[in-house]
## 1
Amino acid sequence: MATFQAFEYSRRIGAIKNAMADAQLDLLVVTSPPNMNYSVGYDAWSFYVPQAILLPLSGEPVWVGRAIDLECARHTTVLPDDALFGYDDSYLAKGRHGADYIADIVRATFPGARQIGVEMDAPFYTAQFHARLAAALPDRTLTDADTLINWVRLTKSHAEIDVMRQAGALTDIAMQRAIDAIEPGVRQSHIAGLIYEALIDGHPDYCGDVPDFQTLPMGSRTSAPHLTWTDERFAAGSACTLELGANRFRYHAPLARTVHVGPPPTELIDLSHVVEEGLVAALAAVRPGALASDVADAWNVVIARAGIEKPSRIGYSIGLGYPPDWGERTVSLIATDRTPLQPNMVFHLMLGIWGRASSYELSETFVVTAKGASCLSGLDRRLSVK
Amino acid sequence: MATFQAFEYSRRIGAIKNAMADAQLDLLVVTSPPNMNYSVGYDAWSFYVPQAILLPLSGEPVWVGRAIDLECARHTTVLPDDALFGYDDSYLAKGRHGADYIADIVRATFPGARQIGVEMDAPFYTAQFHARLAAALPDRTLTDADTLINWVRLTKSHAEIDVMRQAGALTDIAMQRAIDAIEPGVRQSHIAGLIYEALIDGHPDYCGDVPDFQTLPMGSRTSAPHLTWTDERFAAGSACTLELGANRFRYHAPLARTVHVGPPPTELIDLSHVVEEGLVAALAAVRPGALASDVADAWNVVIARAGIEKPSRIGYSIGLGYPPDWGERTVSLIATDRTPLQPNMVFHLMLGIWGRASSYELSETFVVTAKGASCLSGLDRRLSVK
């Protein structure tokens, strides 16, 4: 069973084909796991071997992957059986490559495709994958079509936003349980375990899949944004920045909050006020037609007043995701990105200030609506003191 | 704090440099997350952006990555501060690439390096990453050094095996809790949530990190090896194949078992006996000097007698892992792999028979010792009936 109804995939494939026509492509070799899912529903933990959706400008797409994953394709895609092609494990041996098999299917199924788009910077589309594909298709032209589908994904359907709101509800449950449970003497991993349990099974009506991305630095590790937990225990004076996000049908709704055990230093309280004010200002700048940079600028005005600088981006578009990242690799909320916001785009507005003395994280995932930003979370934004 | 003591990393870097000398490389650009961890300790969830360890044949390695991850490198590597180089977020914009910055550091820090090894088929070393690096270093030769470090990783140190045994203990706890909790009416995601909680925080003395790889197909989805759970409930007559593996300091110890709710069909019982007999035969073939193919052959003799064929590999070397995979991408247990086994190699022997009528999984992670295979798990191997 694919996640959505057939017409949702038809609509998506139509939009992808329009973009392919603009780019003058006859065929797209889709290798990014979220793009494979987006186009035909494919959802399995098989992206450690070469696999692809071959999506022609005219005609129907096919799935190509490892033979033992044919059943995964039968279970999750909208494709008929005769559109699924699997290679045996001899392709995993040294000197062979799944790309050779993919090239054979391109040749057999799409003999007329001359201009072929490939996702040059997609994780798992390795240098070797590309070199083998190019060598096996010398009479075709491979062009960079990286993020072509990612840009189609940017504006969500109502069905997608419903699913993201379910993810948001799971995220809130997990975050609240974590904040409630943090206290002196509790092992950091206890909080991490609670969070995972809640992200997966915390809601009575539906479950979450395992989230892609996880950072829960605690104690002195909060100065580093992308670390996880340890088996140390919380002590008075220690902080924890929680960045987590449930995943419902692989749609993510991230959220960040900061907790401090015991009375927080004045510096951290002040920082929390500035960041919250900045968040409110950034959200207030969201409306259809505003630019991504307008959101960043609104934030920058607030923090500049407090003498803080943050050169890194403050957010990114979000939706379908697989490891290594839950971002969409399209729009960034940063002063240099002039993309106009449109209704039903979704962003993770992620305000992280990492310093060796104090670190603070606060984020919201929001949908762009005609009335402005609609946040998926309903949780209190203040620094939690335990 | 790096996971191991400094001499462990010195030993590893020495072994890598020996392999580099054999391959006539002046410099290795290490981009695979487990290889970055193996060589200098780097451990952060930052591999969705370009980053590398630059490891010269003569001299000391350096870390290059995104500036906001410099603190992650300070926290987790054995490198001094002046060996860490970070690029700002302008490199994330369209038309720019972290590879350009990495090339600048190669040029500035290793001006004499002519023969440069790159990991052509490593996940995250994308076609674009390679193209940009090659374009920015026209006076150097980039050669394929894919899996050079993976092969060094194949034989573990005692310190590594101690950590893998800790992971094995966490895995057993999670598996046992899952098997105990499966019963009619229980939501599949409830079991998944319990498993994650136990993998992370199930042991009183130490914690696990989040596992890389997860497949817990239940019910009719067991015919497909790489699916996860849903929010359906267990019912009498449904089976569940559990493949899971704790991760301690990112060393994995996977394990698979099969559970059936209610009296199992005779066909499944028979299959479980054949697979267990095959597992015992495969383990008995393990000794230093035996070939990887000998293990597969021992298994194939048993299943052939029962009229079963399994063309896919029955296992692979394992140790350090990051998404998308916990395998090491070196030795496979398959009839065509003639690698001799040596003490302190570790393998996941994974016996999965996936059929539409019945599916069965049974696995063990074992260390090659002078006396034969030493399994990390102590759990009962039989089909569990609930």
## 2
Amino acid sequence: MGTYSEEAALLYDKTADRLYPTITGVGEAVAAGEINEGVVPIENSLEGPVTFTLDLLIAQPTLFIRGEIDLPIEHYLLAKSGTVPAEIKVIYSHPQALGQCRQYLEKNYPQAEQMASLSTVLCVTDSFESKVPAAAISPRRASELYDVDILDRGIQDVANNVTRFAVIGLSDHAPTGDDKTSMAFTLEKDSPGLLHRVLGEFADRDINLLKIESRPTKQLLGEYIFVLDCVGHREESPMKEALASLSDPISMLRILGSYPRWKAPI
Amino acid sequence: MGTYSEEAALLYDKTADRLYPTITGVGEAVAAGEINEGVVPIENSLEGPVTFTLDLLIAQPTLFIRGEIDLPIEHYLLAKSGTVPAEIKVIYSHPQALGQCRQYLEKNYPQAEQMASLSTVLCVTDSFESKVPAAAISPRRASELYDVDILDRGIQDVANNVTRFAVIGLSDHAPTGDDKTSMAFTLEKDSPGLLHRVLGEFADRDINLLKIESRPTKQLLGEYIFVLDCVGHREESPMKEALASLSDPISMLRILGSYPRWKAPI
């Protein structure tokens, strides 16, 4: 309870009520049909892609992206009630949250060791179990669930900190008129211009490329799986034609899903 | 002592003798002129880019890449002399090393909690200080420096595990005839086909694209800095002409350096 993933899930669906401790756990619950939709972090405006989620989606052909949620992130510094800030020796959080507060921690807690926890909520109990004075970096919600003092808030280095979550399921989403498509592919061989040719199939059709990532194939250093987000739905023109044209230079293509672009609730 | 970075540095230069605890520390020592060359990890064949290093190079305009080293990685499982493997409750390592041994740990040590350490050597002392039976994932070299038992070796999930290190300095390298060039750039605005046009300047000149990464600008979710590795030296044709042609769609271009491609010692 109390993670950013839970906040994102509730923003997407007020009735969301199942919680899983890890990204793998959410993926397995969706794949097994225990839940129809799951919410996992996929990208952060400061740290970049959540590579663990990308690798999971690439490796699991039964999982599709069927929605997205953009959640503004505000990190709180929490500590067991009565903790003296100047005495803090250890600060626990998920490595991505520690990374997002790097400058703040170097400036305000240079003496504190940074320790990794498995989530931005488990770090609260990790800090409780510490033998030396400790703090945790967590969402606001965690401060309501535990007996903690709020030592500081908004401690992320860059004010504009947004995490994008993917809604995953066993199928993607029907066209809505304002959609995007995520896909992963490998190129047949490493020769000049192949990626340029693939991107040309989109550019020539005025399809806007929103994102390009490369993930290692895990076979050879320098071999990549490309992950692309483009505007449009895979069942509609011109995306449909662009995807159909890709067979030639591409050795593997997996459509991760077409889904509506996120609109913040008013 | 005993990190993979140290092994890489010694492979590059047998007289390498200064050790820094963090990537930031190496960057600062090079920028301050304390050392002429520093060695930092930049990419792994399983986990992908070392984003911290990419972000450091993008942000530090005085630092250049002047060489690269590919080091095969073999992870050892070490524990304080006399530790009983079945009793191990905690396994410490750098998060990237833990990620590279994910399946091995799930299969062989499902009961053990994974804890992050700041390096693949500090995890050995972290495991020594643990109140419960603990182990550490480290390079072979660490087993010679500490009083440990080798519980297992080659525990990485994929046999072909190679880390690429960058040699950084205050200038890049003169042409050698077999070079590559790393660069980072942002595009002027988010419109269809801009990245395709940039890649076209290389493809049209038969310049092989070795790698493309995107890093967040840290300003707006969905805005990226692209990092490209291409074959060729920035002072030589056709790379020289390709770089000169990029001014139009690009709003920021930083040449991270031209340098000889790695050749393993015979």
## 3
Amino acid sequence: MPRRIVIIGCGVSGTTAAFQARKTDRTAKIVLLGDETLPEYSRCGLPYAFSHIVPSLEALIGYDEAFYEQMNRIDLRLGLKATRINTEKRSIEATRSKDNSIETLGYDTLVLTTGARPSTVPIPGSDLKGVFTIRTMNDVERLTNHLVENNAKRVAIVGAGLTGSEMAEALLQRGMAVLEAEIVPEILPVILDPDMASIIRARAEEHGVDYHLNSTLEEIVGRNGRVSGIRISGENYPVDAVIVAVRVKPNTELAREAGIVLGESGGIKTDERMATSAANVYAAGDCIETYDRITRRHIFFQLATTAVRQALVAGINAAGGNAEYPGSTGVTTVKLFGLEVASFGPTTTVSEKLGLHPVSVRVTGSTRLPYYPGGKDLTVKLLADPKDGRLLGAQLVGEEGATLRANLASMAGHLGLSVEEFEQIETCYSPPLAPVWDPVTIAAQALLRKLQTSQAAKSRPVTTVEN
Amino acid sequence: MPRRIVIIGCGVSGTTAAFQARKTDRTAKIVLLGDETLPEYSRCGLPYAFSHIVPSLEALIGYDEAFYEQMNRIDLRLGLKATRINTEKRSIEATRSKDNSIETLGYDTLVLTTGARPSTVPIPGSDLKGVFTIRTMNDVERLTNHLVENNAKRVAIVGAGLTGSEMAEALLQRGMAVLEAEIVPEILPVILDPDMASIIRARAEEHGVDYHLNSTLEEIVGRNGRVSGIRISGENYPVDAVIVAVRVKPNTELAREAGIVLGESGGIKTDERMATSAANVYAAGDCIETYDRITRRHIFFQLATTAVRQALVAGINAAGGNAEYPGSTGVTTVKLFGLEVASFGPTTTVSEKLGLHPVSVRVTGSTRLPYYPGGKDLTVKLLADPKDGRLLGAQLVGEEGATLRANLASMAGHLGLSVEEFEQIETCYSPPLAPVWDPVTIAAQALLRKLQTSQAAKSRPVTTVEN
């Protein structure tokens, strides 16, 4: 009898797991459940479809339904929401959104790719018309309609992380005025130290973003059931819509109710084979906690890149193969207001909280030699653990070249290289393409000197005074 | 008494060694000899100054003389050619080009950064007016003058390596017709396999380069002592100038005559500290042979990036410090006709000659997801050693992103990673910047499958037939 593989959730993780399961087991019966009515689409692309850089929302859809069913014999069930897992009986229950009918599906192996959902804010007015989160295509459609119908001119964004920042730029591109409120003192606090984030903030302010940092969101103000303003730290600002982009929470209810163990982070706990605590149940993507190779803890990364690699492993193993996911450095990139912004590893604040007390340097170099036209400034911050000299993190901001250089530094982090080992990695040069000494190398050299100085200071012998 | 450091050769190696020696020993007396009359300038920039992308030849000069003398107390002696080293007496003799007077300089440590020089071709006509090599600023000035004075319209280039290819593009940009002759069947044979190089050749041909591959250069034809044509494989082609760009040879005469050991490659032999066989004599840059970490032999790299790293080490050690150079992967990049071309490691042909019998794949991916505008094709070829699965080389060609991705692959090569280990390195993604699965990762995945298949084929047990 063919193996029955059920996959719950048809975002990029579920889809990847399904295709990989098919490659691993040509005869398995594979069922892929999605509670939305659309097949997988790129959530990361939503801000760009909103701003019309991508011509339509539909362009974000990865594959049409025929590709699943006819080309890969994947039984794609859309509009079907899993509501219960019975790990004893190896079955799940699911509710059809069309008619609320309930269906039971048996499995030999199950993959949970239930994703995550955005948080809302527990303040007065958060249920008004005109308050949005940005997670689904439907969210963006509703936002767009609201802005058009109300002839909107001003939008407030709550949260200045990745999604909030991308939406700020997209809204400006659509001619809106943008106010962005953030509870902490600087934007992009998860991926950057404040000294690096301030470079992007300065650029965003030039483009017109009105930031309210260190601020307390007190109320979303309404008129006739519809957003008319926002009160931040005691001040009222008139706005036509509010986008809440504060934090994404893993969808773990289904797993938890089935007795599947969650980690301290709140995500589903898995081993390296992406196996959960329940026999024959695997999990991957935004619903799980991921092993962070740098800080050696399990945390909640919200990255498509970790999701697809985990899903690949889960799909192989659910189909009878054997693969392992080694964990991630959390390497991330985003383009904001003409700047590439990329990083891996914990920020200085997080490092300090973990007792790592990093040594760091910040260097601004150029992506070309001075004589060659078109070189761009690239600011690189590197963090190291002074105990063992290991590279802990990199943060890069510049008009070009940050993304791919973050990969290079992140590879060093992945492998646990010391700054000294990383500094020895040669990079290639040609006048139109790259400088002789890469800005990342220059930063590594500076960090190495700083580490050696701090090491020398520590190992200096205590002078005993003799009489 | 202060340490006396003498450095022979003031290209980028000599200059780097001098500055690093100064940083290492604040009181040393540092003498830097250059046989040209100009301080260090970027040789790699010459084609771009010729084509006027860089506004002038002078723009290529790294630092003015005051920066050496006043800022760094380096005694820069230009137009002074070292002619003899006496390693017993620790002294050198040098001839002043101005008046042929001879000077003797004593040293405590000596650094040889004598560089390399282009080869000429041993055929009739190679001494005609209008035959050039491209190594010095003076070469480019003479070429430019010749083209202008003779109202030149057609130029032949002998050799389709890096310099020949860069000059072909530069000549086209100056409105010349370009014929390029190469003895082997495909262009860029040192850094690329023919299947990769043909992508660039097709593009160059669209731009108008007239290639003569697999060809024999028989004669440079002259009229009134001046180039009027070139005979290749029995055919005559009228040209107004010939650029010979076939091979760069290390300048080792000075070292050899002093009894300093050369390696099999013909370059000066050094250890990891860049020490030569003579006591207190170091060497770096184009005049030495470099440890190739991939093929584990000493070969002759012609890269500014290896030169400066070696020179840094030589400068530190010559000044009493202690540093080591770990060898190189030979990672190289060049921009040709709008394409980034980058590689590290031996080509398939060289690998075969070394008995490595590599397994390889070639993959064309995109630098963006399909839905995001502006993504460019990137073709990636990866080579692995089937014996141990080690990544042996990478070759990348595309309109963007080849250079920095070559660094990533080269880092794997530097560290001796297997394809399996390299494939696990996560890369970052954002719609405007990079795809979820990087083309390099996709190539690594394909290569891993191919390695596993070939491994499985080998380990399959021999079937014994039973009756």
## 4
Amino acid sequence: MAHTLQRVSEDANKVATPDHPIHDLLALRWSPYRFSDRQISHADLLSLFEAARWAASSYNEQPWRFVVARHQDILEFHRMVSCLVDANRVWASQASALAIGIFRVTHARTGNRNPAAEHDLGAASASLTMEATSRGISVHQMIGIQPERAREVYSIPPEYAALTALALGYPGGNWMGDDELRLRDQKSRQRQPQTEFVFRGKWGQQAFPA
Amino acid sequence: MAHTLQRVSEDANKVATPDHPIHDLLALRWSPYRFSDRQISHADLLSLFEAARWAASSYNEQPWRFVVARHQDILEFHRMVSCLVDANRVWASQASALAIGIFRVTHARTGNRNPAAEHDLGAASASLTMEATSRGISVHQMIGIQPERAREVYSIPPEYAALTALALGYPGGNWMGDDELRLRDQKSRQRQPQTEFVFRGKWGQQAFPA
């Protein structure tokens, strides 16, 4: 199970600048707007979804579902591109594979709303992304999809809902997209400091004063 | 940034049995119902939340917030235990630290509902968990909390909502809890096969036939 961690980017601008040390698999992950024409192998795709499979979920419900389309399967790939919002279609068309992230809205056993469903899809997609990073593959997730078009195209049953898309591929490639995206792609990665989101005792109170 | 991957469990029963190879950090993660009395260091806690900080989020909104309580801060810790549902209070009391996972319901800029908010909290918590695994620390997330009690106790503003709790600690420890939990803790890890959740072309259609 040993993998060589390959840098997913040669661009130092895209490596996280953490205030405290974090694992390379987390620091090197980022969401590119372009991909090279190198295709992801069958074996790698299986391992990526296998990583999603072993994520944690509330009551082990495993509410995540994915529909996947490979670039090489041209008609299938274009059908999935048509489920994205316009702004995502051009750049995401460069990906080696696309997937729609779907969650089961209700608990299978009780039929009640599963309040953890979207959360657990997020965890599974993060696991998939971590596995991808370890294999030199980049993932760009997007909320900009047309969920009801995806429902129609893939016959998604009413107890499920499409939420995200994932663009998967190797870094590199030429620019496809407008200048605004190009600027966004070149920008260094920005995050709010821990003081803005980790509290202790009371809302807004710094957890770990220096 | 190099860390030694320590096995979070000596229990072979708790290592995932993937059908396709996945990274050790994902295969060794599991959610224990008991923890040893070894405490997580200040530096490790900072790195865990730093891992959450660098997760991906829709529009880089970073909707995740956490309130944390360390076991050693006895009053603070018991206040957080009181925000869990009854069934989680006994075993989670053994943790070295607890956190409440909170998301910002609306986009900060527009005030509209952020459909990715829970999803992105899930991604941040998965990143935190992966960092923990790399440091030999276990994380058990739970949906069984009392969100409105947490709102009251921590003065959580109306545009935010508590969703999860995270119990953090080192593996080991004695049994605290009932026999049903003990059985659940000893059970081997089960997951649906990829044929149940990865589709291609159409709902329910196997993505990668052998």
